[in-house]
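Hallway conversation turned thread

IA: we were arguing at lunch whether anyone had actually written out Glutamate or tyrosine decarboxylase end to end. Turns out nobody had. So, for the record, here is the sequence (477 residues) and right after it the structure tokens. Reply here if something looks off.
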Amino acid sequence: MNLPPTGVPTGDLLAELVRLKQHDLPVRGGQVTAYVYDTGRAEVNDAATRAYLEMLEVNCLDPTAFPSVVEMERQVVGAVADVLGGGHGIFTSGGTESIMLAVKAARDTASAARRSGTPKLVLPVTAHPAFHKAAHYLGVEVVAVPVDLETYKVRPGDVEAAVDADTILVAVSAPSYPQGVVDPVAEVAAVAAAAGVPCHVDACVGGWLLPWLREAGAAIPPFDLSVPGVTSISCDLHKFGYAPKGASVVLFADPAMRRAAYFASAAWPGYTIINATVQSSRSAGPLGGAWATLRALGREGYVELGRATLAATKRLREGIAAVPGLRVLGEPESSLVAFTGDDIDVFVLADEARARGWFLQPQLSYAGIPANLHITVTGVTLTGVEAMLKVIAESAAAARERGPVQLPDGLVDLVAGLDLDALDDPSFAELAAAVGVDLRPGQGQPEMAAVNTILDALPAASRESVLVRFLSVIYSR
């Protein structure tokens, strides 16, 4: 885009936005089973939107200048603490930032005297990559522990064996995103406490879901700050809190750990710098949206959504199990469902579903867990669950008829052996086009089965290199 010589009228700008969004996935209705969360209640979305816009230009940088920020954050964090076992919290922009602050607080409070080397973070292989991102930025080494390949849960004994004098934090998930199962929080927290190490529960997905599922009748194990040994927990409100994007909370059992998450600097002659989050200037719009959503739904509203979500998840699991060749992985305790195909290429199935207007999220194989498709069940899913199951069955049949992706001989080895740093973006785009993925602007959504098959055959480091180049190409001018 070139900056226009004169201002563009609002109507023209909005019309252009509509054009730009023509290939976007729909954010309402439940046909997109990842990335977006929908209550199915227009009035809740309207309340959040109005509050978001009301707070849009308020800056969270200085709470003394905008006391509304303090009061709203105290109310939002207080509501989360009341549900998740108490604690002292920070409102953040999302799960990644919440996790980063938890890792920072653990690193900064760990006694340097007890460490002999690089600080370490012990977590299951199913833990969210946000932990790896935090470790990368904060100079922490990740020690990944395998999970049981029947239950997909981490074993406390394996965690205990991985903890040493350099461990600054142990993490578990409630639930883990890939298969929707809850790690044995109480047992792992006890292991961490016995070693004198903090334990963080990543409840970014489940923190504002599992309590309502429990009230709706689900058997949910203890997982929050009420569990002995749990020292911090993260909970996203822009997931099953149904708030607009940019809303999460991290809670600490000890207020001293919350203070360790803060950043302050007085080593300059300018204005006072004290940040509760990674960001400095940030809009209070997400805070306003979260505040309004919590109040618009209330406890009764969340319990009702929990009941609908539980019913939809049960029906979805039953329906998938009834499709020949498909099976659900593990026994999900939440509303995240992952399924694989015994004689069906799930990547082809995903493309077939996309052609029918539904997005099912592909997940690559890793650490003994097979490639699979992931579905996030939300409050709106129940109204369309039969339509979803019909699409899954049709897509499975079509995928079986098409057969698995057949890659040219030697292609995976070629990709694995490429020096991607020696390729410029146009050359990488040509390589992508050779396997049927046209990354040029305006080409629409390509089928991704071949790409996912190639990625699935590569080791993790090579996958990451390819993904970095993919991102670079699509954002190149």
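OS: looked through it. The chain has three domains: 47-293, 298-402, 411-474.
IA: good, adding that to the notes. The first helix runs from residue 10 to 20.
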